[in-house]
Amino acid sequence: MTDPATTLTHRTVRVGDIDMHIAEQGEGDPIVLCHGFPGLWYSWRHQLSALSAAGYRVIAPDMRGYGRTDVPSDPSEYDRRHTVDDMVGLLDALDIDQAVFSGHDFGAQLVWDLPNWAPGRVRALMQLSVPRMPRSPVRPTDGFRYMSSQHFVHLHYFQEYGPADRELGDHPREFLSKIFHALSGANRYLDCWDFPSEGNGYLDVLPEPPALPWPWLSEDEFGYYVDEFTRTGFTGGLNWYRADDYVWEQNEELHGRPIAVPTTFIAGAKDPVLEMMGEKPFETMASMVPGLRSTHVIPDAGHFVQMEAAEEVNTAMLEFLRGLD
């Protein structure tokens, strides 16, 4: 007989101004898992099963703009006020006072901000792939514009509404296979910087991927992403990039405040994000996160570490969670 406490369920809850789809599994202390681009609740499938089996209530939303959650059209509605309100509203809708939050990619950036934006609602952090770093001294889009004068950079290409939406939306299978491979431990993503911005779209600079299945992604698993993004397109996810300036402005007073809640950080050794963060990203992060208890760097894994090295990530998470009891 199936144990209802370990059965994956889906539902939609009203969170502020949007309807949010969530996947839930397990009973116990709550954990909220926040994906990034181009992700879905499904990006946490391995963590949902492992953490719920260990006695936790695990909640993985399709974040604002993704999957079966509403997709506001205005990029300003992806700013930090809205995205924090989503997480606080989610806790309120589920009658949860405080939760452990885990984020990956844009989800990690949001989750890093939660303790200062929503004090008292965050018990601890389990952060993946994107370390806490100082606030940029320049407006993000100004930095992206300068970088794009040197080489292709997706951060700039994504800012204008239209070109990227059409390119990726017209070729979801090609884009998803290319980006999953390009950011994985099997590739060096920064080779994309060898291409000029002029005359190139994202599909032009991403490498050709090997045929599926891969050690960490089956054809059926990949098909779930293709089906969802074929239905929705990528504009919702791209709007998180287009909100970068809003987030930067709103974080002027809060970003530098230390993160004191218990925290663990997990990343793949071959994640290009770490390479882009400078010489000593972990030392910088530790200076900003006095609550940091552990750092795990997983050999051979890339950016999608929770899928590429699911067992190692689950072990690190459970070790950290047991230390909170």
Notes on the protein architecture:
Helix 1 (45-53) packs parallel to helix 15 (310-322) and helix 7 packs across helix 9 (219-232). The chain has one domain (4-322): Alpha/Beta hydrolase fold, catalytic domain (Rossmann fold, 3-Layer(aba) Sandwich). The protein is α/β, with parallel strands linked by helices. The two termini are 30 Å apart. The chain has helices spanning 45-53, 80-93, 106-117, 140-150, 154-157, 163-170, 172-182, 202-205, 219-232, 235-242, 244-250, 272-276, 281-288, 305-308, 310-322; strands spanning 9-15, 18-25, 29-34, 56-61, 99-104, 122-128, 263-268, 292-298. An 8-stranded mixed sheet has the order 1-2-4-3-5-6-7-8, with helices on both faces. The model has no long low-confidence stretch (mean pLDDT 96). Helix 3 links the parallel strand 5 (99-104) and strand 6 (122-128). The protein is built from 15 helices and 8 strands. Residues 30-136 form the AB hydrolase-1 domain. It comes from Rhodococcus parequi. InterPro entries: AB_hydrolase_1, AB_hydrolase_fold, Epox_hydrolase-like.
